[in-house]
């Protein structure tokens, strides 16, 4: 009998979560095997990779965003140095006031010290060519960026293939043989298995109890002959200018159905939102209409940790629409948890839910 190929960690999913965790484990000398079906309509590949420290109608700063930004910049710089290609693009962002209430909220936030690094000056309608005279104007946001997720994931897949630690496969969970000492899949055996497969977690018999709240989103890629702004523009939706007259326009939010099918109604919603500011986009060429399902969670915090009854099963998931920002820092915490038994962040540890479903 041929002996099974042994690795420390079997990672299910080569989206941003699985890829960055796999990269960090390999850099620390650990053996991994990643499995992924290589679909194009995943959340990680559909996402524009926007990093925005202050979001929502109430202009709320993401908790601990300073440490998340530091970790993200460090990891993406490390990857850029290794591959010789920039993936994280820092870009000024402007947000257009949609109501007097938003303007009042900005006036409140701009006087709060903790928001000073992220909220810059206000501008008036006359300062932007795409604003009408009756517009309330907007304000500049700092420390924003976007991550070229497709390029990064493609390069990481090539790296994993070269390392002999990637297999294109749609895993059937019934094929897993789980014992107290290992996890077996076909001719491979691993010390632990880590599920990083996004919204598919809701179908996982071991982790379906976690309160995942997946939401589908549509993003358009357009091409125009007209000049585009240099900055990312937020106006209830967002516009991300790219090279060669291309831009991304997003994003919709759809809770049902989760069918991964492009929604023309959602596309028209995106276009109708941008036309008042960029009417020339009525003549733009639609290059792509992509859709993905974000793995959101009930409390807006990710899922990290070990199954309460099956020590070989772990989860690293639930980063929602902020994966580009959140995953690098959490990957480092999870790495230390796996290799040095350091405690997980309480806010992300799945133990916060185990008392609802398991009795000790």
From TrEMBL:
Q: Which InterPro entries match?
A: FAD-dep_OxRdtase, FAD/NAD-bd_sf
Cleavable signal peptide: none
PANTHER family assigned: GLYCINE OXIDASE, SARCOSINE DEHYDROGENASE-RELATED
Keywords for the protein's UniProt record, in alphabetical order: Oxidoreductase
Highest taxon of the source? Bacteria
Q: Which residues form the FAD dependent oxidoreductase domain?
A: 9-332
Molecular function, one GO term: oxidoreductase activity
Oxidoreductase in keyword set: yes
Q: What is this protein called?
A: FAD dependent oxidoreductase
Listed GO CC annotations = cytoplasm
- Organism, by scientific name, is Cycloclasticus pugetii
- Sorted alphabetically, which Pfam families does this protein's record hold? DAO
